[in-house]
Amino acid sequence: MREEILLNQQNPQQLERLYRGNKPGFKAAFNALYPELPGNLLADGWYQRLNFSREESTWGTPAERTFVVAASLFAILVAKLPQLLSIDEEFFYSRNVGFIVFPALIAYFAWKNGASATTRMLAFGFAALSAVFINMLPKDNSSDTLILSCIHLPLLLWAVLGYIFRGGTWRDGESWLAFVRYNGELLVMAALLVISGGLTSALTINLFGLIGMDIQHFYSQYIVISGLAALPVVATFITRVQPTLVNRVPPVIARIFSPIALAMLVVYLSATLFAGKNPYHDREFLVLFNGLLVGVMALIFFSVAETHQSGSNRFQLILLFLLSAVTLVVNSIALSAVLFRIAEWGITPNRAAILGANVLMLAHLFYIGLKLFGALNRKSDLTTVGASLALFLPIYSIWAAVVTFVFPFIFGFK
After folding, report:
1. pLDDT of residue 212
2. CA 101, CA 154: separation in Å to the nearest integer?
3. What residue ranges do the domains of the chain occupy?
4. Burial 96-128 (b: 16+ CB within 10 A, else e)
5. How many Cα neighbours within 13 Å face the side chain of 386?
6. Which of 110, 217, 222, 412 has its CA 20 to 30 A from that of 405?
7. Which residues of 238-262 are buried (b: 16+ CB within 10 A; e: fewer)?
8. What's in the keyword line of the UniProt record (predicted)?
């Protein structure tokens, strides 16, 4: 390799071929030869290229690592409160699961993004009041309004996290897209950590079992719960300090699952017609229908954010437009089914909550469809599609607040 480099020291193309053919060998031979090539500008350029290294820490600053450890310990402490204070686990976790996850993340981004004192007070004040409210609701596991409040409160805390992530603003469409992308990267990293942790846990439990020690109960009560509580903060930290680990995965997921979701929706709607199932008289089917709708809506948001990040792709735009159109049909069927059930059997907390959510999703899908159609016709760009998230996500948050805080009083805690 040394002789080949010497022979081609003035031939950039041949040096590039040698480098690509054996990168480690080329680097070792070139570094040994470099002192013998003084004043060679081409050699100077290659030396800088081969030996460039980043000086900054790739795993955050000591202060950041300390903050992540403290936030993780706080999340673990909240998760272990039922054991520490002898609180009924079903009562605690059903009402407070959001407070295990989101306060630590809110604190992390408030510190990391330098949120103002006013913004921090608003965020943590809202979280504290929400914790008091949800835990003061009457203990009735059959109460629909209690269940709805427990479901919608984590969505509100997620919205507060978005508010902190974007520096205390609701209107910036670009930062909304960045927040959606962060959620996608967080899910990818969390899934990888869960898989790794699951394999490690299975190996550990079985190894101790081989020597006659049953640690499964202890391990699940302390190690597993602590790991799950700290998972969101740790996964967030990794995505922030090592963005190249995951930032290429979400666009691939969006490109793969968008056509799959489109095909699945078309086939599912067709199969529903042939099977004779309908959401008008089958309550469980309506619930499944709405769950499918929420999942596809989330995929559309995620795909819009990733398409905006990676640049306009006409095929991807066509795919998203068709997906939004088919989802609009699904939403229309679900909405008509809810209205039919209200007309036939009256209003209930569940029907009212689903009605409001379906109306919002219908309007949002229609708006996104119009913007995607404009982008396809080059009358607008993807920025306007992303702006729709900034317009509607705060409205979803308001509706979640109504369901969480107002419905229990409107329906008499039933």
Report:
1. 87
2. 9
3. 2-51, 62-241, 248-410
4. bbbbbbbbbbbbbbbebeebeeebbebbbebbe
5. 23
6. 110
7. bbbbeeeebbebbbebbbeebeebb
8. Membrane, Transmembrane, Transmembrane helix
* Structure-token pair, residue 166: 């974007």
Q: Nearest Cα to 236, choosing from 65, 57, 56?
A: 65
As a residue count, the chain comes to: 414
Query: Residue 236 has what pLDDT?
Result: 93
Q: What are the backbone dihedrals phi and psi of residue 352, each rounded to the nearest 5 degrees, phi first?
A: -65, -40
One-letter-per-residue 3-state SS of the chain: CHHHHHHCCCCHHHHHHHHHHCHHHHHHHHHHHHHHCCCCHHHHHHHHHHHCCCCCCCCCCHHHHHHHHHHHHHHHHHHCHHHHHCCCHHHHHHHHHHHHHHHHHHHHHHHHCCCCHHHHHHHHHHHHHHHHHHHHCCCCCCCHHHHHHHHHHHHHHHHHHHHHHCCCCCCCHHHHHHHHHHHHHHHHHHHHHHHHHHHHHHHHHHHHHHCCCCCHHHHHHHHHHHHHHHHHHHHHHHHHHCHHHCCCHHHHHHHHHHHHHHHHHHHHHHHHHHHCCCCCCCHHHHHHHHHHHHHHHHHHHHHHHHHHHHCCCHHHHHHHHHHHHHHHHHHHHHHHHHHHHHHHHCCCHHHHHHHHHHHHHHHHHHHHHHHHHHHHCCCCCHHHHHHHHHHHHHHHHHHHHHHHHHHHHHCCCC
Amino acid at 403: V
Q: State the pLDDT at residue 56.
A: 47
Residues of the chain with pLDDT under 50: 55-57
Can you tell me the distance from the alpha carbon of 103 to that of 154, in angstroms, rounded to the nearest whole number?
A: 11
Residues 6 or more apart whose Cβ sits within 8 Å of residue 188: 246, 249, 250, 253
For 380, left (φ over 0), alpha (ψ -120 to 50), or beta?
Answer: beta
Closest CA to 387 of 139, 171, 81: 171
Say if CB 233 and CB 104 are below 8 A apart: yes
Query: What pLDDT was estimated at residue 147?
Result: 92
**Angle, alpha carbons 292-404-342 (nearest 5°):** 60
Q: 17 to each of 37, 49, 348, how far by Cα in Å? A: 20, 15, 72
